[in-house]
């Protein structure tokens, strides 16, 4: 009786879906070396450790033969067994599978796959190339020669190898994803290695997951709630793009993924790939104990196999026509559509591509306790198999509705390199977006551009014009002023032009229009007036970011005015240009700015009801103050039609139910050169106190509630290029 099932009080027998019986399948009565061979199962994909052996399964629709290589150690030159999978016994539909009794965790494996020699039809099978498993939990690059994977010929002795890993054994000590609401989230985008790689970090294992653990107290002290880590999936850190002035140019950012289920090798301290999952898990567990979530920057829009001249080491060799968007003349599929600027585009909405992405995300949430993902060039995920954007892209809606991912944060970079720009209409409902329009409006306004008052008001109040029309919320907008890709916040206030000469591309790389302003001198200067102005501009940016509805994102290093010397595209610089200098962090000037950011974050949390979750409605509180009202230098008279105006003010009323003490906020922004007088609201029963004024020296620039300064005048004179925040206090 199924209806009585929930009320039963006796134990229910739970049967695992990954028992040795279900994975072995039929005994084929074959033996190669010390391995007994069974037919195995097509599911799950990858190498699944079970009692007595391992089940191997890979997808290929068009392969005619699949050979599995087993290495006693992943870095051995020769395999101890080479097994040709039987096209009848070890082949179900498009899955090639086998169970090998006697294979153990820690051993290496790879594949050779053959198929039609038909590049015109998109097939690039090459039986001479050793392939890694798309679902591998670890890969070794110790023998890897990228050039050999690009050239014709056998690359056995210089190939990558996948590693058999039992990922089920780890003591999480009760850890679970934190599930913090997006409305309470403050994101800190950072490069994991660059955070501690400098010798000045004084950590035991610089540039690693363990190194980050040692610096968690610093992150916690800032008050951020989540770290957004640049790619931590396995990538080719050995790939040298070139040498410029004696410096190797390498894949530093990591936006060309090789292993979608494997932590990056170079971020681990152990050479044993079997321990890499645990090192990543240790980091996640430590961050969670500090109350900090982990969001991963993931790259599903393209792979590291590049274009038709790129290496063959995985998808290209298993089934090129399935995994990539292909093109060519006269119906040919000889070349690759490049919507990503990286040589190829992953076929995200093919059923197999969709399954691969979902399986990867589920793995990182369920097995690695990750809290969310930021999708690089996320608009690619909306493209159908013909490359055109879909109204209801299967992969995006599958991520949206998947039960295992229901509590994971999903953030899209809502554009791609081919011109698709979906800010405000990225498919799906709960997806948040990097709000590039917010970035541009705030940069322009603080730079001193005219004609932006209306747009700044829209952006600061949650970009309702972009999101509310389809029943989204302010939390769909990830507000940012800088990101890893572009100027740092200090450089935004110190350079008019990019300075990318160190990248060896004649300063042709990186964007040219940065909406930056150098405050009067290009780059470093000894002019104290300019340096003080730059500091104030950084504080202005920070203040608007934390006063805005939506989800604020800070770029690691902006809190201490880290500079990249004007380089706005440091993708290839694995050196001091990108690394945190902890001696600078400890300097008085940096500590002043860090203090400012800490206090700002504290204030945002204190007044979270003013900034969280929902759009303003016009509701008023007991003092008759609306939840939002706009002003110019005169009350209730914003300069919407004055294209020359650079002044804006807003009052945010405290309308939270049950408040015993009403605290309203009055914010004023003056981006003119000259001081400007702003009229203040006069309300019976309330007085205004100054909480923040970016024109004042530290520590008067931002103060705690017990040190608020009473404002008795009916006007407040704002210094040129400054932000002021007043807080109300009841007098009755």
Number of separate strands: 33
Counting DSSP H or I runs of 4 or more residues, the number of helices is 17
> What's the overall average pLDDT, rounded?
94
Over the alpha carbons, how many angstroms does the gyration radius reach?
Answer: 28 Å
Oligomer class = single chain
Biggest β-sheet: count, sense, barrel?
8 strands, parallel, barrel
Residue runs with pLDDT of under 50 for 5 or more positions: 1-21
Percent helix range: 10-25%
Instruction: Quote the distance from N terminus to C terminus.
Output: 66 Å
Structural class: alpha+beta
How much β-strand is present in the residues?
A: 15-25%
Broad shape? elongated
Strand order across the largest sheet: 12-13-18-21-22-23-24-25
Q: Can you describe this structure in just a few lines?
A:
With 732 residues, the chain is α+β, with helices and mostly antiparallel strands.
Question: Mind explaining what this structure looks like?
Answer:
By secondary structure, the chain is α+β, with helices and mostly antiparallel strands. Strand 19 and strand 20 form a beta hairpin. Helix 8 (351-366) runs parallel beside helix 9 (394-401). The longest helix has 19 residues, at 528-546. The model is unreliable at 1-21 (pLDDT under 50).
Task: Please specify the SSE layout and strand pairing.
Layout: H1 20-24, E1 27-32, E2 35-38, E3 46-50, E4 53-59, E5 65-71, E6 81-84, E7 91-92, E8 95-101, E9 108-114, E10 139-140, H2 146-150, E11 161-163, E12 187-190, H3 192-196, H4 209-214, H5 216-222, E13 226-229, E14 233-235, E15 240-244, E16 247-250, E17 257-263, H6 276-289, E18 293-298, H7 315-323, E19 326-327, E20 335-336, H8 351-366, E21 372-375, H9 394-401, E22 409-412, E23 432-434, H10 436-447, H11 453-460, H12 464-467, E24 477-480, H13 489-492, H14 528-546, E25 551-555, H15 582-585, H16 588-606, H17 608-611, E26 629-631, E27 647-652, E28 665-670, E29 676-679, E30 686-693, E31 709-711, E32 715-718, E33 722-730
Parallel strand pairs: 12-13, 12-25, 13-18, 18-21, 21-22, 22-23, 23-24, 24-25
Antiparallel strand pairs: 1-2, 2-8, 3-4, 4-8, 5-6, 5-9, 7-8, 9-11, 10-11, 14-17, 15-16, 19-20, 26-27, 27-28, 28-33, 29-32, 30-31, 30-33
